[in-house]
Design goal:
The protein is of the alpha/beta class. 44% of the residues are buried. Strands 7-6-5-4-3-2-1-8 form an 8-stranded parallel sheet. 41% of the residues lie in helices and 15% in strands. Helix 1 packs parallel to helix 2, helix 1 crosses helix 11 and helix 7 crosses helix 8.
Length: 250
């Protein structure tokens, strides 16, 4: 039985002091939640937020990391640094990293493998643009990103992979794929994982949905058989909305 995983991606929001105050409120409001929970502050806020959530039911995530462990890579953050701060998961392949910063499938694959090597959970993002969806290529794009992003990741290592399906056209736009449309892609992705690995691996892998998830639509999305949680952007930036999302089943 897959456990629902609700994760908050704060993106480039909240200063370290604001993040600490916010995290303190979340620890209180989410203490009775029975879903798996993660928050991913900006890199600058990771250390102070780690202190706040230590010992709580919320795990610490990072929004990105370098594809190598160390060296002359100005502006990058190493997996070793993240681990030292108490980070347990890292978001990789987000559409903003792909579109704005030009990250390739090959680079994302290197990051996924490095995260797994060091025991972090890779929250691996895939998703199609509106143009690709309207051209009938949604599944093809997701399959291609999945295959390339998981290249040389073994079946055993898939225990450290969470897939986040985020249709690019629904991120931060207020538009959301209908529960039925989202379920169709999630089911197809699970089928692709079965093809690449096995039915057992496919049944175990958590596939989150991301794209304007909010308290008003979360129950319908989570009721779908192959949607196992959410990677939440804007709605994770307010205590009330993120708490409602985490406790959607209550």
């Amino acid at each position: 039985m897959r456990k629902t995983f609700i994760a908050g991606n704060w993106k480039m929001n909240k200063t370290p002091s604001e993040a600490v105050a916010f995290a303190k409120e979340l620890v209180k409001s989410l203490k009775d939640s029975d879903t798996k929970l993660m928050i991913a502050p900006s890199t600058a806020a990771l250390a102070p937020v780690a202190d706040v959530i230590k010992g709580s039911n919320i795990i610490l995530g990072a929004q990105n990391m370098a594809s190598v462990e160390d060296g002359a890579h100005t502006g990058e953050t190493s997996v070793l640094m993240l681990k030292d701060l108490g980070v347990e998961a890292v978001i990789l392949g987000h559409s903003e990293r792909r579109a704005i910063y030009g990250e390739s499938d090959e680079l994302i694959n290197a990051k996924v493998k490095l995260a797994i090597k060091h025991g972090l959970t890779a929250v691996f993002c895939i998703g199609e643009t509106l143009e690709e969806r309207e051209a009938g290529k949604a599944e093809t794009v997701c399959f291609d990103q999945t295959e390339k992003g998981l290249k040389d990741v073994s079946a055993a290592e898939m225990d450290k992979v969470v897939i986040a399906y985020e249709p690019v056209w629904a991120i931060g736009t207020g538009k959301t794929a209908s529960p039925e449309d989202a379920q169709a892609i999630h089911k197809a992705i699970r089928g692709k994982i079965e093809q690449l690995y096995s039915k057992e691996v496919a049944e175990k892998v958590i596939i989150q949905y991301g794209g304007s998830v909010k308290p008003s639509n979360v129950k319908d999305l989570m009721a779908q058989a192959d949607i196992d949680g959410g990677l939440i952007g804007g709605a994770s930036l307010e205590v009330e909305s993120f708490t409602a999302l985490a406790n959607y089943n209550k």
